[in-house]
Amino acid sequence: MMNDECVEIRALEPEDLEYLYKWENDMDLWDVSDTLTPFSHFTLKKYIDNADKDIYETKQLRMMIVRLEDNMPVGLVDLYDFDPYHMRAGIGIMIHNMENRKQGYASSAIRLMLDYCFETLGLHQVYSSIPSCNIASLKLFESLGFTQTGYRKEWLKRGDNWEDVIYFQQLASTWKQS
Question: Stretch 79-106: mean pLDDT, rounded?
């Protein structure tokens, strides 16, 4: 468990099942999560039951973001494509409910996760791929010192349209300076 004055990020617990079920099946979020089909309670319960496995085994880590003032889960922060040889991982964030956005929860959670990545896991870099229409996430990652390092034209299919993706990267050497 890691925290600052605003949020804590912690491992998934069995009592998080209903939050995961609601969030993973919210079709408004499927574009950012690349979800194409709903998740069952059974599948998500198995996922939580296996959440105790080591990041070196699963190559991913999902943490619950909890608002400290009332101990309410507000979102998730994920590490994915963990590569211990090349010392890198991808990072993603989801804050559910509009009233929980623009409150500093996402930036706090990412800062905590970056500290974990660079100080505990010893990673060299953390990266993120963000759809070009997700202006809030683009601004968030830029505000945290991530550098834009790539652009993929028409990378994601959205219905009958295509969307570009922008790649961002944070190096341990520049994070420690901030």
Answer: 93
Contacts of 15 (CB under 8 A, 6+ apart): none
Helix (H) or strand (E) holding 103: none
CA angle 44, 75, 146 (to 5 degrees): 120
82 vs 100, which has greater pLDDT?
A: 82
Quick one: angle between helices 105-115 and 135-143, nearest 10?
50
- pTM > 0.70: yes
Question: Is residue 78 classed as helix, strand or coil in its secondary structure?
Answer: strand
CATH superfamily of 2-175: Gcn5-related N-acetyltransferase (GNAT) (3.40.630.30)
Query: What is d(CA 106, CA 95) in angstroms, rounded to the nearest whole number?
Result: 7
